[in-house]
Target: S-adenosylmethionine-dependent nucleotide dehydratase RSAD2
Amino acid sequence: MMLSNQVHFMKMLLQLCFSGVRSILSKVCSWTFTWVNMTNTRMQRIPSATVSPRFTSNSGQKKSLGVNGTTPSSVNYHFTRQCNYKCGFCFHTAKTSFVLPIEEAKRGLRLLKEAGMEKINFSGGEPFLHERGGFLGEMVRYCKEELQLPSVSIVSNGSMITERWFEKYGEYLDILAISCDSFDEDTNRSIGRGQGKKSHLEKLHKVRNWCKTYKVAFKINSVINTFNVDEDMREHITQLNPVRWKVFQCLLIEGENTGEDSLREAEKFVISDQQFQDFLDRHQSVSCLVPESNQKMRDSYLILDEYMRFLDCREGRKDPSKSILDIGVEEAIKFSGFDEKMFLKRGGKYVWSKADMKLEW
Ligand SMILES: C[S@@+](CC[C@H](N)C(=O)[O-])C[C@H]1O[C@@H](n2cnc3c(N)ncnc32)[C@H](O)[C@@H]1O
Ligand code: SF4
Model:
């Protein structure tokens, strides 16, 4: 019986050889591929799975997909918490005075680039405060010249920016966003967006012109709150002609601008969803307006704090991960709370290199 089985098996083998080794191999490959795919799909459904496939993009650049395929394509690095303004609603307050040494900051930026970062936005606190913009300038140059990131941008209150800075670093910067919540100087002062007698609006116009001269795309950010919710900003925005006007609904964050340990009490600035919608309706003719409701803001940003820790805002506070400098981007990003779908839905990916904007400078 055993012998007859063996003979039968040998016969089968020979037949298979004749029918073409190539076709057998291709079948085996196809079965293996299907099996591996099924296994991966099953693993991705488990939230704590540590599947982190790597691939090489067309440009030959290594990209990490992180957990559940998350790529840190657009990152906001709040490298300082210090600020010269006192906006009453501020949700990123001066809880520490820590700033990483420049070489460590650069190491982190390189790690992010290796993990797939395409856009970096420098924020704060006020990013032009530390070393009078020298620290920021060096990071901007490094990201554009050495890391060759498609997009390098800054969000600032504008007050500390000088023409000298533009001369030195303007060529490396794609987008500069200046925050302005009102076109009435007194309203800005009541909000806390100002320092001493300096005019926030005068500086805004100055910076806008420097952006033109030094070929940097100009953007405006406004936080809609109880102080400006009834304002009509159409004329001013049209005149300033930014590439984008981000309009935020004032957001509360536990430990930052609300709750026991917070440095601000922003409750009196908060507006309802309906009030926010009314503001948007009034400004619907402004084509560059990009609205951001509270819900959109909470989980659609990848935020790094001054220690290069991702901040998870889903619970209404900023829960930090470990630093990417200690555990790497792939591990840290699992604790970022980042919702890539919401990021894409809110238009997080747009034409963000100034070279692609076709602007008439
Ligand atoms: C924290 S600030 C840091 C950069 C800079 N100091 C500035 O004011 O532009 C970054 C952005 O967040 C906005 N922001 C601050 N507090 C906010 C809040 N409670 N809700 C919505 N946006 C807020 C600011 O207006 C600014 O556009
Ligand atoms: S929102 Fe105002 S207080 Fe907060 S960091 Fe920006 S300028 Fe400073």
Summary: The longest strand covers residues 217-224. The chain has one domain: 69-350. Residues 16-62 have pLDDT under 50 and may be disordered.
